[in-house]
Design brief:
The complex is a heterodimer of chains A (191) and B (136).
Chain A lengths: L1 H14 L9 E2 L11 E2 L5 E2 L8 E7 L6 H15 L7 E7 L7 H11 L4 E3 L6 H7 L4 E5 L6 E6 L2 E4 L5 E5 L5 H14 L1
Parallel strand pairs in A: 4-5, 5-6
Antiparallel strand pairs in A: 1-10, 2-3, 4-9, 7-8, 9-10
Chain B lengths: L1 H8 L4 E9 L8 E9 L5 E7 L3 E10 L4 E6 L4 E3 L3 E5 L4 E8 L8 E8 L3 E10 L6
Parallel strand pairs in B: 1-10
Antiparallel strand pairs in B: 1-2, 2-7, 2-8, 3-6, 3-9, 4-5, 4-8, 9-10
The chains are: A alpha+beta (191), B mainly beta (136).
Bound molecules: copper (II) ion.
The site of copper (II) ion has 4 residues of chain B, from strand 8.
């Protein structure tokens, strides 16, 4: 009897339509950043495993980034709200690429201005390069025109991990929020 | 004839709409400025520079997002505003880079800004500060 049930379920699985692709790029099997330890704004060393049980959304930025970073963080805040009760299952993390200027308190105030649940991680300046590399990302300082200040070219990719902290999706920063929300709903339902 | 001369010699009239910026958190020293520049005149003009007492440095930047990388660069030679046209400074496009802020920008306030145009000269604008979670 058990054998028949197994055979039937195999046949059933074979007949089921393949799952629709995600709106973002599915990268299941890739494990960027999962080995990292990065201090949070309280100085406590965190790894992605600390956030298991939640869908974790990781994004690089810095507080002196006036355009793309606030625009993306605002949209990620909207994303959590648009998920209703499921929004509580989503954790948004900003990793600063400017630890020299972004003190822990400055970074903390910055992310919480968008959503009190957002978390800022601040690699030590000496560790920044290896953190960025672990995500196959880039962060390059560029001096302003008069040379007295700088901005930072950086990857604007959004990395999504499931509740088991497996990396699942990579999205571009300008992906419409409804599309990303639909993807996250599927990840939440899958677990 | 008089009419012709009158129009041709009139300074291009520059109008600014929807000038806005995002509020900033304590310690944050940079914000982005956005607006619609409208040239109702028959002559092309150009936004050359921007200044304010509350920001140590203001540059005009352009954002690009090629290959998943965010880059900002100064717009060289200012922003051309053709005759009879509208130019948008908007998120993820051209923006004012408001740097070295003297104090946090508080939502609800209005901040004075001075725009310098090639033909229209100095134009005063009031920049509306919007809550950071409200503005895309
Ligand atoms: Cu900029």
């Amino acid at each position: 009897m058990r054998g028949i049930i197994i055979v039937l379920s195999v046949i059933f699985a074979a007949c089921a339509p393949p799952p629709l692709p995600f709106n973002a790029t599915e990268v299941t099997g890739v494990s960027y950043g999962t080995q990292l330890q990065i201090p949070d704004t309280q100085g406590k060393s965190r790894s992605l495993a600390d956030f298991s049980g939640k869908i974790t959304v990781v994004f690089f930025g810095f507080t002196s980034c006036p355009d793309v970073c606030p625009s993306t963080l605002m949209r990620l805040g909207q994303l959590r709200k648009s998920l209703g009760a499921d929004g509580a299952a989503v954790r948004v993390i900003l990793v600063t690429v400017d630890p020299e200027r972004d003190t822990a308190s400055r970074l903390d105030a910055y992310v919480k201005n968008f959503d009190p649940s957002f978390i800022g991680l601040r690699p030590e300046p000496a560790a920044l390069e290896s953190v960025v590399k672990a995500f196959h990302a880039i962060a390059v300082k560029v001096p302003t025109a008069d040379g007295t200040d700088y901005t930072i070219d950086h990857s604007s990719t959004i990395y999504v991990y499931d509740q088991n902290t497996r990396m699942r999706l990579i999205a571009q920063a300008d992906m419409p929020i409804e599309q990303l929300a639909a993807d996250l709903r599927r990840l939440i339902a899958d677990s | 004839m008089f009419v012709y001369v009158g129009i041709a010699s009139a300074a291009p009239s520059i109008q600014i709409e929807n000038a806005r910026t995002r509020s900033t958190a304590p310690g944050q020293t940079v914000s982005g400025g956005y607006m619609t520049l409208i040239n109702n005149g028959l002559t092309a003009d150009r936004l050359l520079s921007v200044s304010a007492s509350w920001a140590g440095m203001i540059e005009i930047h352009h954002t690009s997002m090629d290959g998943g990388v965010m880059r900002m660069r100064e717009v060289q030679g200012g922003v051309p505003i053709p005759a009879n046209s509208r130019v948008e400074l908007k998120p993820r496009g051209m923006h004012l880079m408001l740097m070295q802020l003297a104090a946090p920008l508080e939502a609800g306030r209005s901040m004075p800004l001075l725009l310098q145009f090639e033909k229209a000269g100095a134009v005063k604008v009031s920049l509306r500060v919007e809550a950071v979670g409200q503005m895309p």
